[in-house]
Amino acid sequence: MTDINTNNAVDPLSGYRLEGSQEAAKKGDLGKNEFLELMIAQLENQNPLEPQDNGAFISQLAEFSALEEMQQISSTVDSFSEQFQSSQALQASAMVGRNVLVPGADSPLLSDGTISGMIDLPSGTSNLSVSILNGSGELVRRIDMGQQFAGSVPFSWDGKNEQGDVMPNDRYTIKAESKTSTGSEQLDTLFASQVISVSIAQGGGAVTLNLAGLGSVPIESVREIN
Question: Given this structure, which CATH class describes domain 103-191?
């Protein structure tokens, strides 16, 4: 009787594994087609004395199914992402020419020589004040607005200092402060400006609004559209 020694037998898949590994390395990942071809080759070239175990075969089928599902999910997510970015870009383009309210700490004088905006007041205060500082950080004007309730509080500066002199056309820092039981609290200020254009990052990335006098801001920072 002739004995069949499988220990020294040449692995019929060795060449395929090498070729498949090299091809997968070129692509970076093992795709579902390569996975299926590898599994078929394994079945065709299995040792007749030691056939493929049913459990192992089912496990490979499960891996193949999971791989295909993951690829489908990835494709769906990419599609949703592209649709969202397209929708966001369309909404942003419709904002050109409109006025938006965005957070900020400084603003240039408007064409009428004034600066106006809103103060985000989280809770009521016995005294709300606004300080205007020039580009050198010097106090130009302080406006006491008295008692205010929580909410968005409008403010306006006429562009004049404490002596009534008209200030030059420049950027001015606006600091809002409320008096509390424990001292004082710095508050966020918001400014209104017109959207003059929209920028979209290469590859469908972040959408940025270019505002007159205020520069560029991300679309997510817009608090109000008029």
Answer: mainly beta
